[in-house]
Amino acid sequence: MIAKQSSRHFEILIDTLLGYYLEPYHNSLRKRQTKKSKFYFFDVGVVRALQNLADYEVQGDTKEVGYLFEAFIINEFFKLNDAYQKRWQLSYFQTQNNHKVDLIIERPKGKPLLVEIKSSTKIQEGHLSSLKNIMPDFPHEQAYLLSRDQNDAVISNIRCLYFLRGLKEIFETY
To answer: What is the reported pTM?
Structure first.
């Protein structure tokens, strides 16, 4: 009974445009439906307000910064997808070995784009490990790592871009 009530509350949040689900990626529609979706509020400030943390500054390079940055970028993809009328399907991917890709962009034509999101201001080789593990077995057109690092680079065929330049490139190129 509680699960049904909780599910209804999330439906209300979605119906009132206060949040949305990022669905799991899988080639099979049936298998997609059995995996867990991620829920995102439309604005990271809402999350902090609900946690009663709105009056507190987010500190340095913490897990909270990582979560908020990822949610912010995911929100931007949803907003820009609507604004540019791309009709892209957005999802995430996670293996049984816990390798994950934060965002899979499925376009009406073409192979998917893989996007990893890191809040770091200095990208290091270790930030690319999940993408590098998934790329050989995942048909994709391009892999991106979007971060707060101002220095753009290509490492192991992964375009590592400052997030604003990355968003612009993805939406203007594809």
So the answer is: 0.87
